[in-house]
Amino acid sequence: MPINFLFVDDEPNTVNVVKMLIELEQPEWIFHAAYDGETALAIAKQTPIDFVLLDISMPGMDGIEVCKRLRQMPNTAQTPIVMLTALDTPQRREQSKAAGATDFWVKPFKPTIIVKDIAKIINSSS
Questions:
Q1: φ, ψ for residue 109 (rounded to 5)?
Q2: What pLDDT does 92 receive?
Q3: Sorting pLDDT into bands at 50, 70 and 90, what band is 1?
Q4: Is residue 67 a contact partner of residue 83, using CB atoms and an 8 Å limit?
Q5: Considering only CA atoms, which of 112, 93, 104 is closest in space to residue 53?
Q6: Residue 114 is inside which H or E element, if any?
Q7: Quick one: 44 exposed, middle or buried, by C-beta within 10 A (0-12, 13-18, 19+)?
């Protein structure tokens, strides 16, 4: 069964790097990209998402709010959501946890291990 992977980040270069890594290491996964919170929520309403990698700092609706709203939707209430940020502070970690995030990762991430870490979370949640 293919994995529907949703990556939400307003930086196109970061989205392209993650997409390339997913296509190389997990070609059976279906990659969905959103560059803002509203688009992410629309994708999640239409598609059964199995994993969300979600940037915190985005214009408009930030990742914390997106995470809260995803947790309120029946089809993503239990979906693993990993928050991603370049600004690692105790406050952001606490906000992420309170919003319902599964985990919290700091940019820059290591390309050699990010897909393996995502796969571990997906496998442990299924």
A1: -85, 165
A2: 95
A3: confident
A4: yes
A5: 104
A6: helix 111-125
A7: buried
